[in-house]
Amino acid sequence: MLKPNITSLGYALFLAISAAGIWGGVFPFLPMEFQTKDIVFWFYFFQSLACTITYFASLIGVYKLPRFTRSFLVKLAGAPYFLGWICLIAAIYLDEAALILVVLGGVLLGVGSVGFYMIWQRLFAAEDADSGNRDILVGTAYGTIFYYGLHLIPQAVTAFLIPLVFLPLFGLAAQLKSRETNRNQPMFEDIPYEHPHIYRQVMKDHWRVALCIGAVGFCAGIMRSVAIADPNVGSLVNMLSMGCVLVAMLLLIGAWMFKNIRIDIAGGYRVLFPFLITAFIVVPFLPPPTIRWVAALLYAIYTVAIVLMMMHCAQVSRDRGLNPIFVYAFFGAIVYTLQNLGFLSGVFAEDVRVMGLSPVSVFALISVYALALMYFVGSGGLAEAIGKAGHVESVELMAISRSEMSPFPKVGPGGHASNDEDAEFVEQINYYIDEYEEFEPSDEAVRIDETSMHSSIGSASTDPNSSDPISSKSQLVREAFRLSAREAEVMELIARGNSVARIAEMLVVSENTIRTHSKRIYNKLDIHKRQELIDLISSFEG
């Protein structure tokens, strides 16, 4: 489980170098005497601004020009990343032009970092759920180790090694992985403007999740502003938070090995909210050394939230067959905008005293207010109060140890069979699913009445204690064959007699997406037609 591959190692090296998941900058690897307050502030400001603009531009661009997402333009992302580092290195030696070079470097690194995040997101989303989630978690864990390792290299050498050696290495890893990626998946073939209602539904369903992550990002942005005043504090917090992230990744991977995990990000924020708000209330009364630990823990939480965001976005892309760049850019635009607002609020609060309060107290007041407001909105706000909150998928990790019990054949990326024999029957699935088969259900078969055949999505319950035998038995099938929540949903709707068009309408996705899910389901269950699916479901004891 912890054995790295090219993808996870490349992603780990990218994370270690950019440190984008922690402080959003590369200053830990530059000389400390170079890091004046003006230099650091303007670098972070323009880098953050460039990140936000790039996310919004990607969101709009991928909607208008979706064909470009079929190509993994590593060179297009690598060029600004390389030039940004060159500007930073030049700024160290050219004092008179240092500020201009730092600003330019911040913009280029912001654009390049987002470009690489987009590339990694597409690569992870294109994999099956197990492989994609594993690469994200393992890559993040190794990224923390690489980060510590980079500090063993002299700073003057590291600054040159990053653009000349490390950048080509993780760029090559992304390029090699992109060549193995199956691009004939609905998510890459999708044309957003042809069915805008599906994309509107996704944004409606998931903006609260993005807001919850953004709330943590807002507080992390405030803490970043504190670090500007003393770069030594920033480096220390960076080191401590990386250690916390490593522990969190190892615990999550270890738990995934032996049990199913369902992570509701919005629900997790509600659980975390009392601890966050308490931390900011007590911050003004803590000694400076303790505040560093609070900041480190907060940034560790924020980094874990970013990891979950990537997994969540990848799962949404797989489940709904949507362009992964659009989904990730939508989340990134909200999260990083809030992080930047937190950063600017912290910088402003540092120079303002309200009723004699110290800057730390002002930080705390702003954070508490923002957390409380976003908690209210993220929990559903008035919509929740009147019962109109939307349905949101949870991040799923099906227990790895159970895979030995699953007799399904090996399936390649995108649900395509891994050999010619499997591919032959996969091609027959469209017929069996599209054309409703006439059959006489046996005593053992699941009987489907007219109500069940035309049931709404609400009937596709995943509750094992459901009184509906189809739903309860479908849940048992899901656990035995390690189906995802969306696959179990589609499987049950197929068993109830719904056509591809009807299922696509009920789930607000494209028909091509339902076909892809159906192929994966039939492959995993090792069946060829709807009647075999019904017989399989009926064989389980509810």
Give short descriptive properties of this protein.
single chain, two-stranded antiparallel sheet, 22 helices, 70% helix
Write structural notes for this entry:
The chain is 70% helix and 1% strand. The protein is mainly α and 542 residues long. The protein has a two-stranded antiparallel ribbon with strand order 1-2. The two termini are 33 Å apart. About 12% of the residues have low confidence.
Give me the Rg, rounded: 25 Å
**How far is the N terminus from the C terminus?**
33 Å
Strand content: under 5%
Shape: globular
Which bin fits the share of residues in helices?
over 70%
Number of distinct beta strands? 2
Q: What are the SSEs and their pairings?
A:
Layout (H helix, E strand, L loop, with lengths): L5 H13 L18 H28 L9 H20 L4 H29 L2 H22 L4 H26 L5 H4 L6 H34 L1 H28 L2 E3 L1 H18 L5 H33 L3 H27 L8 H20 L2 H5 L9 E3 L22 H7 L2 H6 L15 H4 L15 H13 L3 H11 L4 H8 L3 H15 L4 H9 L4
Antiparallel strand pairs: 1-2
Helix pairs in contact: 1-5, 1-6, 2-4, 2-12, 3-4, 3-6, 4-5, 4-6, 4-11, 4-12, 5-9, 5-11, 8-9, 8-11, 8-12, 8-13, 9-11, 10-13, 11-12, 12-13, 18-19, 19-21, 20-21
Provide a concise account of the structure shown.
The protein is built from 22 helices and two strands.
